[in-house]
Amino acid sequence: MLAVSVIVPCYNQGQFLHEALASIEAQTFRDFEVIVVDDGSTFPETIRIIDRLNSHGTRVVRTQNQGLAEARNSGIRQAEGRYILPLDADDKIAPTYLEKAVGVLEQDPQIGIVYCEAEFFGARQGRWQLAPYKFPDILISNNIFASSFFRRSDWESNGGYSAEMMFGWEDFDFWLGLIEKGAGVYRIPEVLFYYRQHERSMAREIDHEKRLNSYKTLFRRHKDLFVNNIEVLLSQIVQKDPLTGVETRLYRSQLFFAGDGRYSESHSADKSYLSHSWTKLYFELPRSITKAPFSLRFDPANGLAVISISELTIKSVSSGRVLWRAADRNAFESIEVAGTANKLSSAEHLVVLSYGEDPQIYLPRIDAEKFQEPLAFEVVLHAIW
Questions:
Q1: Where are the alpha helices (DSSP H) in 168-307?
Q2: Quick check: 236 pLDDT over 70?
Q3: Domain count across the chain
Q4: Residue 266 belongs to what domain range?
Q5: The pTM is what?
Q6: Do 68 and 208 lie in a common domain?
Q7: Which pLDDT band holds residue 202 (cuts at 50, 70, 90)?
Q8: Radius of gyration (Cα) for the chain, nearest Å?
Q9: Are 215 and 283 part of one and the same domain?
Q10: What is the DSSP string of 174-201?
């Protein structure tokens, strides 16, 4: 029995297939097969490209156009591998993804889903800032992308991908099904998956009504999972102060720390806070970082917000002695704002408009070598939406 079957659905995206297949062929782990599923393509060039693949030894499954869920199912039914990796025709993987994922699955039979960190390429580039998997938080937002490994036996016991998810989110539904059955999740702390960005994508084109219908279908299909963890849903509901009538929202902030200037989810911490009130967030910094010059990046919110920041401080955990502080306009001018955020003008505060999932505030590089004390980062902020 083969170790891995890589399933590549393709619907009229033949122009990208070579790059996807080349990334599979470059794998250091060689015990795999590739199955390309032609999901009823109509573009002549895509049909010709897939015809050539068939004649060169890649297994090709041809179906009528059924959509992504059934295209993946059709390929997996033909698969011979113990482990499955779906890979969309326009994406690609790093050479060691198979090797490292199989190592995790072979070592721990309790792990049912293995994925990694990821980057965008194409129309948009840079790190895909997905929060690490955490249960029950995944009930609110799927942070496991479709190109993740799972066991063929788990696909069978789960009944495959559901065709009920007609507007997308079939991978979200599939992960919840595996998690519901006790599957553990492991994220390899390394960028091994590359997600192509187009000017338009199916995920962005799902409108509010379709998202609502998809979420209702998820709830119905995994009702016990949602009901037994209802507190995570309640924490996200818009809350209205009965005295002031002000609606509040729960935001998530994240602090990244790096000694080498490279930021990753594995070297970060997060805090949540409510909008419409001044809040002080406190993060203790790891000693492994603060023993040498280090950098901090603070992502103030996970979505649309205007955030006012009155103070940013790095100080001693024990004594409160301040190593660095920004609390006036002159200091704020030296702070870089990037990602899905813009700096707005203000006489008193650092004011940031967050308009996406990846707003970034970069602090100047800090030299703590002479400080010789455990350090903490504090930020005083106020968000509205």
A1: 170-180, 202-205, 208-221, 223-227, 230-234, 287-290
A2: no
A3: 2
A4: 247-384
A5: 0.65
A6: yes
A7: very low
A8: 23
A9: no
A10: HHHHHHHTT-EEEEEEEEEEEEEE-SS-
